[in-house]
Amino acid sequence: MSATEPAFDTPQEPEAPSSCPPPLAWSDVLREFQCGSSVWETESGRLRIQGRVWGTGRPLYFLNGISGSFDLHCLTGWLLKDDFRCVFLNWPDAARDLRQLVEAVQTSADHLQDRQFDLFASSFGTIVALELMRTIPERLQHLVLQGPLTGLRLSLAERLAAGLMSFVPGTMNRLPLRRRIAEANHQRWFPPFDATRWEFLLSESGRTPISAVARRARMLHRYREPGELKSASIPTLIITSEGESIRHHHAAAALRAIIPGTQLESLSNSGHVPEVTHPHRMVKLMKPFLLDQPSA
Description:
- It is a single chain.
- The chain is an alpha/beta fold.
- The protein is built from eleven helices and eight strands.
- It has helices spanning about 25-35, 75-80, 100-110, 125-135, 155-165, 180-185, 195-205, 210-220, 245-260, 275, 280-290; strands at about 40-45, 45-55, 60-65, 85-90, 115-120, 140-145, 235-240, 265.
- It has an eight-stranded mixed beta sheet with strand order 1-2-4-3-5-6-7-8, sandwiched between helices.
- Strand 1 (about 40-45) and strand 2 form a beta hairpin.
- Helix 2 packs across helix 11 (about 280-290).
- The longest helix has 14 residues, at about 100-110.
- It is globular and about 45 Å long.
């Protein structure tokens, strides 16, 4: 889930900080991303899809979590754009089922003439990635699942609430107690030297319509891992983080058992959005895997 939502389990306290590269100035990178990347648009059925392309090389598609825009992936993209043509797309807010989101990714790849591509998916985006693995495995070269979330079971009360919220106007930043809940569950994992990075996440994820998040939560509830994944031959990397809830870790373990040859890596001292908090460390795991190189 994203920083806009309460964790399902109490996260652990972070360990002592480990050494890491100098932090990226996210605002400078975001500005370069917005100015230096190319904008594209296409349509999938009645849904309009908007995205950006940044970098050169083999295509690497980024799939968002349950809320927030592709801007949240700009730090990761900045570190990968010299080796990959990074393709970002936003989920159409009007999408009502998983099939439409899967078709949106396929349509985007067709529009950009990418017969094959690598795929990075975070949180909610992992169920879209898994459906792509099931339906068009011949088009996927590598799959990276960060903080996977599958098998989410909403209670009857939660399902009713999600159904009602599907018709609520406004964006996530209007929800009562949203900031307080997010701070309690996720802020501890953000770099203490840059408070603005936390505000960046809250601002970006807060712009997502409440109705869209509610519909995506119901998609998660209805999703079941397909048996066809047992015969998948796509190289897959799963990345978990210390500060994620137990549901994310259970999903990672279940997928590792289902998908043959899956590589599982874990980030210590990191929460659920390492693409914002620790992009260097995440890319250190991703890059050799995507390039079929031995990890350092």
